[in-house]
Amino acid sequence: MDHIEQQIAAYKQEIEAIEPATAADLEAFRIKFLGTKGIVKAISGEMANVPKEQKREFGLLLNGFKQFVEERYAQFEHLKDGAGAAATDADFTLPAEPHRLGTRHPVSIVRNNIISIFERLGFAIAEGPEIEDDWHNFTALNLPENHPARDMQDTFYISKAPDWLLRTHTSSVQVREMEKGKLPIRIICPGRVYRNETISARAHCFFHQVEGLYIDENVSFADLKQTLYHFVKELFGEDTRIRFRPSYFPFTEPSAEMDISCFICGGKGCNVCKHTGWVEILGCGMVHPKVLENCGIDPEKYTGFAFGMGIERITMLKYQMKDLRLFSENDVRFLEQFEGTV
């Protein structure tokens, strides 16, 4: 017993002096003292040589030593994850790991470009709720209940009587701004809108719009055309050809669709432009007098124009894409292509 107690005391001194610095040092410590052929195991084998009356005392001594070794080992367990090696083996003369930056979504890139162009023309940004009531989304825009033009927009209704829905256009923001009565108004309204449409390469149940509104005295259709001419030239380039076609919208009169020459075929005709050489990008027109009246504005004194475009449509044209679904699939391989455009 005495010589075993002396051995254990010596081992304790040795263990206290050990300071593992790496995971390899810690593993060597474990093998030497706690391994299957380690010192703790070897001392345990001495139990067979201890007299019967001393076995209890030897067991207590052995358990105390084993606990001491395990506690010492636990103090350095953090080295097992390689932290110790990183702390001592790191070469601080090497350059740091590069911080990988993300990229903006292509829709966000084009949205910001559109906003920037109109801000330079003096347009302010206005935003509103995506959950809207029937008045702001339809009725105030000369779309009363049972009006056939409502069929042009398949709608997600949240509740009925009163009607609440996911807005189908950002025109509702224009109504809210007109109701404030602060004239003149010169705003653009970017935001997400929702329509109950079948998802395909050319349509989705949600998309993004930018709509514009300018109301003041003596605003004419010529002002509308010149504003949109400038916008298209700034966004797509000076060589872009533009045309207006008569159209119908219940909230504008007269109304028009605006087309630009197809970038993919150069105006010669392809599948994207349906072999016409032209691609529609937005709708526009003079604000209907009834809309002005609904919002408390005197149509005899004030006139205005409005326009609206889908950002996804503009983005598809700008980057020559053919599938609208790419914008909402979150495919990193697709999004990384726009790193250089940020």
What does this 3D model show about the protein?
This protein is α+β, with helices and mostly antiparallel strands and 342 residues long. The chain has 12 helices and 10 strands. The chain has helices at residues 2-17, 23-34, 39-44, 55-74, 83-89, 106-120, 134-137, 171-179, 221-236, 289-294, 311-319, 332-335, and strands at residues 124-125, 131-133, 157-159, 164-166, 185-194, 206-216, 242-249, 252-261, 278-287, 303-310. A 7-stranded mixed sheet has the order 1-5-6-10-9-8-7, sandwiched between helices. Strands 2-4-3 form a 3-stranded antiparallel sheet. It is elongated.
What value does the average pLDDT take? 87
Uncertain residue ranges: none
Number of helices: 12
Shape from CA axes?
Answer: elongated
**What fraction strand?**
15-25%
Distance between the termini: 78 Å
Estimated helix fraction: 25-40%
The computed structural class is alpha+beta
Indicate the radius of gyration in whole angstroms: 37 Å
Structural topology:
Layout: H1 2-17, H2 23-34, H3 39-44, H4 55-74, H5 83-89, H6 106-120, E1 124-125, E2 131-133, H7 134-137, E3 157-159, E4 164-166, H8 171-179, E5 185-194, E6 206-216, H9 221-236, E7 242-249, E8 252-261, E9 278-287, H10 289-294, E10 303-310, H11 311-319, H12 332-335
